[in-house]
Design a protein that fits this description.
The chain is α/β, with parallel strands linked by helices and 473 residues long. Helix content is 42%, strand content 18%. The strands form two sheets. The protein has a ten-stranded mixed sheet with strand order 3-4-2-1-5-6-7-10-9-8, with helices on both faces. Strands 13-12-11-14-15-16 form a six-stranded parallel sheet, sandwiched between helices. Strand 3 and strand 4 form a beta hairpin. 48% of the residues are buried. The protein binds adenosine-5'-diphosphate-glucose.
């Protein structure tokens, strides 16, 4: 079996005692690598005075890691800049928050070359290379120009935007042409795959061959491969003390009230302002629910160096304060708004104590919280998932109460419906969703992608050199 080299922007292994405040990618990838005895290569998250390309090798949580440090200008231009201020908002349909700057684009190219240069000596001829996410879209092409003919795949964890939005990027054609150096590109849902294909067919003289798109001599397979949970992680948590304690603590503090829970990174794509407004509408229109329910919103801050993230934090502080000011009584707080991370087991207990799981992103590649909420429920008395129609997860979790996250009325109706849903209907919906997430878990995800990546491409396909080699300064 070939060795896997996984590459992502950050390498984040859970170390003991650390609160598990990591993104969905980190959680899923660690599980996949443990299975394949591979190496995880990426940025350590540390800053260095001057980039040296020195690699630190470690083994943590059963996974071998190889990390590099980046210098301040790299972090500013590549990570805070092009990744988080240009691509992230644009790919989440937020053209209003998208910042176009040449420094950002230059930093992105520079760091992608630095990744390619540092990774190159680690690659052996039979290795499968799996690159992750929007930070590293051109990396495959940079490895090809350095002569690597390995099978190289890419998985996009976030949505792919419609062509009309993508074209506001000055270098959109170069970026997408570089992506066609990959042998396989994986998407979370068919909607994002189709949007990518539309762009390619529109902009290039490309042909469709089955699941592949061919440009000249390069053939790239476009695969729909939704990411899943490490379900065994969750079934183990059912028996943990931390889970039971978190669940009991919440049940006691709820004092018989029904809990609605939201768990999200503090990010404008997650629709948190709209969610708070919908909850306010529910309390306004349904006085009978006051004092009977409360919303627990857990939202650890992320990307605090980016101004739009500072803004959303201020907005949510104000909104939760004003809703509590308007509706609270001496012994009832309508919104408990918490800005901290929790361990997986605690999170499991929190999900399990909640009658309603509220997951209403405006756009989301997948959204693992939706799946985690389902996995954590007691099948005998499950809570109800209220899910945005614009999360990738909605294509799989069709038995959720699906809502339009832009409409306060729709979300409020969805919560009310979930709160009054009879037990038999809750059980039926939960069982169907649990089956789906158990079958298509994180192992299914990595196996499906890796099988596609390992497939013999056929004799007619030879690697094409894309882009030009660049001097490193
Ligand atoms: P994210 O945008 O980070 O991931 P998501 O899929 O919801 O979004 O994953 C968040 C993860 O962080 C979940 O596993 C959740 O449990 C964890 N988390 C959130 N708040 C936490 C807290 N307070 N304490 C501890 N853990 C917390 C990106 C894409 C998604 C895609 C994933 C994986 O934006 O659409 O699902 O990658 O592909």
């Amino acid at each position: 079996m070939s060795r896997l080299i996984a590459v992502s922007n950050r390498v984040q292994i859970e170390t003991e005692g650390e609160s598990a405040n990591r993104g969905g990618l980190a959680v899923a990838l660690a599980a996949a690598l443990r299975e394949s005895n591979g190496i995880w290569f990426g940025w350590s998250g540390e800053q260095t005075e001057e980039f040296t390309g020195q690699i630190t090798f470690r083994r943590a949580d059963g996974v071998a890691t190889a990390t590099i440090d980046l210098e301040a200008q790299d972090i500013e231009e590549y990570y805070n800049g092009f990744a988080n201020r240009t691509l992230w908002p644009l790919f989440h349909y937020r053209l209003d928050l998208t910042e176009i700057a040449r420094d950002f684009a230059g930093g992105y190219e520079r760091v992608n070359h630095r990744f390619a240069d540092t990774l190159a000596p680690l690659i052996e001829p039979d290795d499968l290379i799996w690159v992750h996410d929007y930070h590293l879209m051109p990396l495959g092409a940079h490895l090809r120009t350095r002569g690597f003919a390995n099978r190289i795949g890419f998985f996009l964890h976030i949505p792919w935007p419609p062509a009309s939005l993508l074209m506001s990027l000055p270098n959109h054609r170069e970026l997408v042409e570089a992506m066609l150096a990959y042998d396989v590109i994986g998407f979370q849902s068919d909607e994002w795959r189709q949007a990518f294909l539309d762009y390619v067919m529109n902009q290039f003289d490309a042909e469709i061959e089955g699941e592949c798109v061919r440009l000249g001599e390069r053939r790239t397979r476009l695969l729909v491969c939704p990411i899943g949970l490490d379900v065994s992680d969750f079934s183990g948590a059912v028996h943990s003390l931390a889970m039971k304690q978190a669940q009991t603590r919440l049940m006691v503090s709820a004092a018989g009230r029904e809990m609605i829970v939201g768990v999200d990174r503090l990010d404008y794509s997650k629709g948190l302002q709209e969610r708070f407004a919908a909850y306010e509408l529910l309390l306004t229109n349904r006085p009978d629910l006051r004092e009977k329910v409360f919303l627990l919103q857990i939202a650890p801050p992320s990307r605090g160096d980016v101004p739009s993230y500072q803004q959303i934090r201020a907005d949510l502080n104000a909104l939760s304060g004003s809703i509590n000011g308007e509706f609270a009584s001496i012994d009832w707080t309508p919104i408990r708004y918490v800005n901290q991370g929790y361990s997986r087991d605690e999170l499991f207990g929190i999900y399990r104590a909640a009658r309603v799981g509220l997951v209403t992103p405006l756009r989301d590649g997948m959204n693992l919280v939706a799946k985690e909420y389902v996995a954590a429920q007691d099948p005998a008395d499950p809570g109800v998932l209220v899910l945005s129609c614009f999360a990738g997860a909605a294509a799989q979790l069709t038995q959720a109460v699906i809502v339009n996250p832009h409409s306060s009325e729709d979300i409020a109706d969805g919560i009310a419906r979930a709160l009054s849903m009879p037990l038999a209907e809750r059980q039926e919906r939960h069982q169907a969703m649990l089956e789906c997430i158990t079958q298509q878990d994180v192992r299914w995800w990595s196996r499906t992608f890796m099988e596609a990546l390992a497939e013999d491409p056929g004799p007619e396909v030879v690697p094409r050199l894309v882009g030009t080699e660049r001097a490193q300064g």
